[in-house]
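Handoff note, outgoing to incoming analyst
You'll be picking up this chain. Sequence as last confirmed:
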Amino acid sequence: MKFLYYTGLFLSLMFSANSFALEQQYQQPIVDLIKAFKNHDKAAISSHIRYPLSRTYPVPDINNEAELVERFDDVFDETLIKQIVDSNIDTDWDKVGWRGIMLNSGVVWVDTDGKIIGINYQTAKEQLQAKNLIAADKQALHPSINTFVEPILDWQTAKYRIRIDDLGDGNFRYVSWSIDKKTSDKPDIVLLKGEIEFEGSGGNHSYTFKNGRYSYILQVTVIGCDTSPPGWLEVYKDDKRILSQDIINTGS
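Most recent structure output, in case you need it:
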């Protein structure tokens, strides 16, 4: 899921990409990256990635170079490789402020060191993998919650397991268990009609669910520092925050 929000980042920018012409100092790392793809050098490509490389949930993230080499064909097909290899350093790559450098309006994002940090593309192989994982996911859930259009996330704090699903037409569902329970158990909390809100142009966003006087907010970090958690859960009673817990496991 996380890498798809780089698309939202680009779409939310209210100015021309030409405002972020790639400066000379950032070009050599991109040239090296293109060369690695041109040579189809999986080892070199794996060294040009900032790990973990997020994949759309429920496809597992790629955590290191060995995993990237093993799953290379799942992530990079001929179409994506051709876009990178045929790209023009002067016209197809743009620096978008502090957020990074994007190829072709955000299909690939890299940092200023030339390491890939996001890919807004899913191969046919990975789409099939996601479809099979979603089917297995539904089978493993409690019958009361095993119907949805798309799973969004499955996360854990120190005390809770939380998942958010899209039920269709923008209707997000929040489900929570205490950490000692399984997802096949009946949930402790089920909330519907959640709202998603993007925070500026960086891609960070939040899901908010209401339950009477209580608000459950799940913050999702897309762009942060090295020590940033992937997100955190906040619970408010009226306007008073009564709980805040970092996400410690993304379930992928």
